[in-house]
Amino acid sequence: MSNDIGSVRNVNRKDKVIALSKSIEPTLRTLAWLLPGRFDDSELVAEMIFSSLNMLTQSQDAHSAKHSLNAHSRYTSSNWGRLHALSAKLLSLTTSLQLLGEIVMHRREKRDEQGRYARHRWNYITAIEALKFTLKLVILLKTQLRPLVTPCTPSRDQDVSLDPECDEANRGVRGARSVVDLKTKYGSVDNYLHATALDTDSLTPPSALVRPLSSGAQVFSELMLIAEPLVYVLALRRQFARTQTRTKPWRTKSEWTPLLLSLSMSVMSRQLRKYGHKSRSGVSPYSFDVNKSSIEANEQNRREQSFIRYLLRGPIWHDFTKPRVESVVSRLQNWPLVGIAAGIVGDYIPLIDDYHFYTSQ
């Protein structure tokens, strides 16, 4: 009996620590967003805060996801084997720390007069993208050719139910609640019933929430999507090597090569994915209709929206997007309140110029 009481107390303490960290986290993230451009090494301090918060929230979300009813949480925390779990955690950790490492390398590069650290920084970026490519390929194989989802681990951005109090309410751990308690927490009993209502994803086993790739076109599409960041970095690295030996470093058509290569791979992957969906006749036996699960729909929307990042890359950024952003910032800087937001946007322009992982996938 005493052991049960002790375990309950430990669980309550963990929940209180998680709830406290969640209340502090938005303030720290807002502070980190405002830091760049304020003082020397401000972007380094801001990214250290972001990286620390990301690693902390990943461990908390993994703990909270064990009893979550959310589809994304159930799928990413399902048992695909130890190698899959290790690859997913390492991929999330790498994604959280990649920009911090690049900022450190870039600061060493600025202090180097011989240009050695410039090559080291590109070696670092290439190694990170190669590691991510390998980990994504392992996850693809271990999930039996199911498309990758982002993030590959439980995330509170995807899962509202990762809140321990909401999860306990859904599971009835604290027992029956009075109408007064429900109105206090949810505003009305109807809101509580809507929050705890089941959908088709709740009745679907985790492995069936994302359907496997069923054709060669779909597999090739997914492989192109996984390889695109690495191919883009290799093209950028080759371009960097050419500009280092060029006697007259003016703009040439070759600067478009990495961007066009990356964009063509993304567009081809998208078109093959659409063709594969049209030609695929198999539907999950757990679905009541041909609609996608919430995970598949969210991932498709994320992939469609990822094309926006090309506005912040290469010649498109330098020749089209950046001049327009600078023009808007200069016009709004003298406006009250709006000028503060414009100034923050302006502080991020040099970061987009200098760091690869600000616009990477």
Task: Please name the defining characteristics of this protein.
361 residues; mainly alpha; 67% helix; 0% strand; peroxisome; Peroxisomal membrane protein PEX16
Describe this structure in words.
- The chain has 361 residues and is mostly helical.
- Mean pLDDT is 78; it is low at 161-176 and 281-290.
- The chain is built from 13 helices and no strands.
- It is found in: Peroxisome membrane.
Beta-strand content bin: under 5%
Derived from helix and strand composition plus strand pairing, the structural class reads mainly alpha
Distance between the termini: 51 Å
Taking the sheet with the most strands, its summary is: none
Shape: globular
Rounded to an integer in angstroms, the radius of gyration calculated over CA atoms is: 24 Å
Taken in chain order, the helices and strands follow as: HHHHHHHHHHHHH
Oligomer: single chain
- Helix % is 55-70%
Helical segment tally?
13
Estimate the mean pLDDT confidence. Answer: 78
Low-confidence stretches: 161-176, 281-290
Number of strands: 0
Quick overview:
The chain is an all-alpha fold and 361 residues long. The chain has 13 helices and no strands.
Mind sketching the topology for me?
Elements: H1 2-34, H2 42-64, H3 71-76, H4 82-110, H5 116-142, H6 164-171, H7 179-186, H8 189-195, H9 216-245, H10 256-279, H11 294-305, H12 314-332, H13 338-354
Helix pairs in contact: 1-2, 2-4, 4-5, 5-9, 7-8, 9-10, 12-13
